[in-house]
Amino acid sequence: MHVPLYQAKADFFRMLGHPVRIRVLELLQHGPVAVRDLLADIDIEPSSLSQQLAVLRRSGIVVSVRDGSTVRYALAGGDVAELLRAARRILTELLAGQNQLLAELRQADTPAVAPPFPQPRPPLKAR
């Protein structure tokens, strides 16, 4: 059965759609990292990290290498690091645009001249 390209892309981005998986990919950008080091950098239970690593491994985006009792994970290719850099650039542009809009909104809400305070009325005299 043929999967349309847009569906394959949606599946790919869905696979990336977990904060722990994104954090793991960020940590792997600079080279292989041992599982114990990933656990130290990510405040997560070992079983949860294992589940997220399995998703990344099944997708083919990361590979694991055993060195004695140590298991290290690495990115399967450099394009993932470029994707993360592109995401950072896009988010930076979006947030900069939001800050500019926020500044414009705040400026629009600031009246040019403050309205005068109403003067208190003198008390009524009893007759």
Q: Could you please describe the fold and organization of this structure?
A:
It is elongated and about 95 Å long. With 127 residues, it is mainly α. The relative contact order is 0.10. It has 5 helices and 3 strands; from the N terminus they run H-H-E-H-H-E-E-H. The chain has a 3-stranded antiparallel β-sheet with strand order 1-3-2.
Question: What labels would you give this structure?
Answer:
3 strands
- What would you call the structural class? mainly alpha
User: Unreliable runs, pLDDT <50, ≥5 residues?
Assistant: none
Question: On the 0-100 scale, what is the average pLDDT?
Answer: 88
Kindly state the percentage of residues in helix: 55-70%
Order of strands, widest sheet: 1-3-2
Order of helices and strands: HHEHHEEH
In total, how many beta strands?
Answer: 3
* Estimated radius of gyration: 27 Å
Biggest sheet record:
3 strands, antiparallel
How much of the sequence lies in strands comes to 5-15%
Q: How large is the count of helical segments?
A: 5
Distance between the termini: 97 Å
Q: What is the overall shape?
A: elongated
